[in-house]
Structure formats: structure tokens, C-alpha cells
Design goal:
alpha/beta, 22% strand
Length: 158
């Protein structure tokens, strides 16, 4: 399992491969396992490489002193552990290439940018984690990814 962060993703994100690529975008919810299992079945059938991606949401207007680096580091550690648990429980024995990726910023924007730069054939993302009111007010990440992503997007319902 390889982990990446914003500082050094350009090289690996621009790699081109003859193999297909699936980006699995997850959060830390219990529902992530369902999303990953669904994507795993597709990846096995396509013989596709996988990037397991989580984006740590950081407000775009946050100033230098407003972000606590130790909190971000702790969040990255939790996400890395979550990715490892998902990979160990679902991909055990698989021969697929699976990479753990953690980015920072606006989740929908970062998912779409990463999918494009990594030449993904498909993005798999969960839907329905926001309440109806919050989703109407803010718009869901999955809705934004569907509208803005360069490739096909599969949404997995709860």
C-alpha cells in the first residue's frame, strides 16, 4: 500500500498505463466498505488498478495560522489506518495494484482533478450520506463529481 499526499502526487498522478484505473472515493463512514466492495468486483472484472482516495476537506479561505498541522496529521493517520483496514479486509489475496491516496481541499474538486490526472476510467463514490436539507443547501459531493468528472461515475447507494 502506497500513500500519497498533495506534496508529491503529480508524478504518480500523471503516469499513463495500459491498464485501466478505478478511483474509489471514500470517507471514514461505515458505508465506505460497501463502496469499496462494489468497486472491487468491477476492478476484478476489468483487471483495473485502484486508487483508494479520501480528501480531507480544508476550507479554501483558511489563513496560514487557522489550520492546526497536528490536527491534519492526526486526520491523515486515521484515514491511512482506515484505508489499510479496507484494503486488508476486501483485497486480501488480490493481484490488483491498490494505492492509498490522501489529498486536501474541496472533496469534489480534488476527486475530479485526481481522476483526470491519473487517467481514471471510472470513479466509484458513495451517495446519500448527507441529510435531505443539508444536501439541498450545500449540494452533495457525489452530485458535484457526477457533474464535473471527465470519466464515468458510479454511485453506490446505502
Amino acid at each position: 500500500m502506497k500513500s500519497q499526499n498533495d506534496k508529491h502526487t503529480d508524478e504518480s498522478m500523471t503516469r499513463k498505463s495500459s491498464r485501466k484505473k478505478i478511483v474509489i472515493a471514500v470517507d471514514e463512514s461505515y458505508y465506505a466498505k460497501t463502496v469499496v466492495k462494489t468497486a472491487y468486483d468491477i476492478a476484478e472484472n476489468m483487471d483495473a488498478d485502484i486508487d483508494l482516495l479520501t480528501v480531507i476537506e480544508i476550507p479554501g479561505l483558511a489563513g496560514e495560522g487557522e489550520l492546526d498541522r497536528s490536527q491534519i496529521d492526526e486526520e491523515e493517520k486515521k484515514i491511512s489506518e482506515h484505508h489499510k483496514e479496507l484494503i486488508d479486509s476486501i483485497f486480501s489475496g488480490s493481484t490488483l495494484l491498490i494505492e492509498s491516496v490522501i489529498l486536501h481541499g474541496d472533496p469534489a474538486k480534488k476527486i475530479c482533478e485526481f481522476a483526470k490526472k491519473s487517467n481514471a476510467s471510472l470513479v466509484v463514490i458513495g451517495t446519500g450520506s448527507l441529510g435531505k436539507l443539508r444536501s439541498k443547501l450545500l449540494g452533495s459531493v457525489s452530485d458535484k463529481v457526477i457533474k464535473n468528472c471527465h470519466c464515468s461515475v458510479l454511485t453506490v447507494r446505502k
